[in-house]
Amino acid sequence: MKKRTFSVLFFFTILIGGFAFFLIHQVSFQSDKKKETVNTLYATVLETTEEYVKVIPVSETEEWLINTREPLEKGDFILVTYFDDEFKSITPNEVRVLVGAEEMKKTVVSEESLKKEEIHTTLPLKQEENLLAKIKQFEKSFDGSSKKISKEAKTFVNEMIDFVFFEGKINGVTFAELKDTSKAKVVYYLLLIDHKIEKHFPKYKQTVDKKITSMKTKLIAQYLQFVNTLCEEDKEQCETLKKDFDSIKSELDISWKNVKETFQYGVGKTKEELKNMYELWRE
Q: Which of 38, 71, 78, 156 sits most deeply, having the most CB atoms within 10 A of its CB?
């Protein structure tokens, strides 16, 4: 009888021990899994101390505490990566300053996006397609000899800059009459054209109208604005725009510094849009 009782007790001991081991293993697994999940937070620094910084995240109204001794300044726009948060308090994995406080002062950042002016156009689709085809063909022609570029570049670039920025016409059409997707494509081609000309003539802008000296930065700013606008409206077009940007980012070697330089032309940009611009550039 004692032997039987001992066997039953031994069995239950093993069963309970196994169940306890299973629970501990599951808790540990879930904890490790939770730690592996890296979260991101975009925020503006409000206050700094020796032990922590107080920040306000993008699109939020409640303040967070970041437990860090990183040399941050009030006004810095930062990206924080972390594994977990407790009551809006973070021990970060990494803190990166995306836009310094001084740069933010020069950046036109508003609390709300400017309302987009809607332009209703009855421009025939065929006319719009013909215009894009003409610009694309000209961009492809720059893959040829430098002599051809030398002969035609100045005239065409001036014509395109007038078209995009100064209400000029090409084929009887103004830039404002195009759909936003077509405008973005025009800017895309013009960035490629500018890059290809500079390969053969690095100082060509010095011999052309001075209004185009900052053309690249203005065009990148405009393209990013189209991405922000269209990605809110059309997911399919958004993916196309992102692929095109990835192409020109690689071809033109666009750095985050280049993107930050576009802020001076970003009237109405919000901190949410700055975040989106960084994520687009980082992809």
A: 78
